[in-house]
Amino acid sequence: PPVIVWFREDLRLSDHPALQAAVATGHPLICLYVLDDETPALHPLGGASRWWLHGALADLRRTLGSHHGTLLTLKGSAETLVPQLAKETGAQSVYWHHRLHQKEREQDERIAIALKTQGTAFEGSWGTVLLDPAQVQTKEGRFYQVFTAFWKAFQAQDVPEPLRSPAGLSFYPLSESLLAQYRLDESTLLPTHPDWAAGLRASWEPGEKEAHEHLEDFVRHDCSRYGKGRDELSREGTSRLSPYLASGAISPRQIWAALQKKGAHDEGARIFLSEIGWREFAKYTLFHQARLPDTSLGQKFEKMPWRKSEKDLLAWQQGRTGVPIVDAGMRQLWKTGWMHNRARMIVGSFLTKHLLIDWREGEAWFRDTLVDADWASNAMNWQWVAGTGIDASPFFRIFNPTRQGVKFDPDGDYIRQWVPELKKLSGKDLFEPWNTKEHDLERAGITLGKTYPRPVVDLKEGRDRAMAAFRSL
Ligand code: FAD
């Protein structure tokens, strides 16, 4: 009988404990992916993530093909399809990696019960995080709510070494007719009309090999100056590993091991690993606090008088707020499916503070447009930026977009790249066109309100409004 490996957010062959366990049985494999849009409690994938998934599935299928195997992709409720596939093929067992959110774990439990009832075994292991999130606890047996304490306790533990790609794979022959009515038409993952993915195609190549190339490239060229380089908006000073991590083309343990090799004494490597630590902390928090994506963890913020303004939200989404550094970030996101971390903080602060719009609106837009959209990291960072989370930046820390721009995009290259209509402005004018002299605007070919918007909010008024709302709590 075959054994089933159920791929989820782990679309790779190397360092794949579930695959390794399945191969160890010596039985032929069925490699499965299920796109489950039918279970409402689970977060649906956004548009950019679907685009990425299309490439990641094709890559995994190619790799399996080089071992004379293939990938079966189905669409529907995993609760129905996984047990049904096991039954129809007489599979002996199903292998997967644990998921984090309570609703996902509950679904896995229901599937496990269904499998058990029909006599199919199952085995879960940890493959998407560095450590089992139940393993890192305070002395009192509670979970950590502050990153630095979490990270200290985490580092006292041993991270397992990554596994190699398994050799000698054998596959179970799948018949065309098997669950034919549930086959996923993978082309439906791609946009049709309009085709908004041209910039994504130009920016990214999903795949396991590409993930490792990014890692090697980063370790070789950018890692040692990461501490400073990660904040420079116009440089590619970061690893751009996030979409590969989100889809599981590379595992955090592989990154961990590669960086350990480089040496923990390298300051850049140490800071980089702590960012991998933030990813871990986000997953850990999602595991322990299921309300992270939906509810402000700082409870008083559930009473925050957020503004509802379709017009302002749309201007933010479309990169037409009239605040250049904000618009640059939002346009980079729309064009490439990714935004620099510093820009994410700037646009996040602007939305939740200057515009006083609920962080969940920002979270939802990012979830739909980021190729690295991650349920845990996205929600955790939005709550951090908005100041509503645990261990978050305090609400009254309101980024001044101009100052942020001057500091992290000193030559204005980031703004010029993404907001080209302003490219003839220089100095502070580039960051504050509304304060620019009329004849300087004219010379640069800019008419405010026509070729570039006036700011949707006066920065000082927006700031005062946010502080008043905060004080009202
Ligand atoms: P690098 O700087 O090279 O970092 C390496 C890896 O560390 C990243 O790939 C990522 O996995 C992890 N990492 C780095 N910073 C963070 C962080 N602050 N929190 C958690 N993990 C981190 N990251 C996502 O992966 N998915 C999201 O949906 C997401 N949403 C965000 C929303 C907001 C409002 C903000 C402020 C940040 C968000 N981040 C998210 C975190 C961060 O911006 C991205 O992980 C990072 O920019 C990805 O680029 P990189 O791979 O080059 O990062």
UniProtKB/TrEMBL annotation:
Needed cofactors: FAD; (6R)-5,10-methylene-5,6,7,8-tetrahydrofolate
Xref: InterPro entries: Crypto/Photolyase_FAD-like_sf, Crypto/Photolyase_N_sf, Cryptochr/Photolyase_FAD-bd, Cryptochrome/DNA_photolyase_1, DNA_photolyase_1_CS_C, DNA_photolyase_N, Rossmann-like_a/b/a_fold
PROSITE patterns tied to this protein: DNA_PHOTOLYASES_1_1, PHR_CRY_ALPHA_BETA
A Pfam family it matches: DNA_photolyase
Domain of life: Bacteria
SUPFAM superfamilies named among the record's database cross-references: Cryptochrome/photolyase FAD-binding domain, Cryptochrome/photolyase, N-terminal domain
Record keywords: Chromophore, FAD, Flavoprotein
Domain Photolyase/cryptochrome alpha/beta positions: 1-130
UniProt cross-references to PANTHER family, sorted A to Z: CRYPTOCHROME, CRYPTOCHROME CIRCADIAN CLOCK 5 ISOFORM X1
UniProt similarity note: Belongs to the DNA photolyase family.
Protein name as catalogued: Deoxyribodipyrimidine photo-lyase
Organism: Gluconobacter japonicus
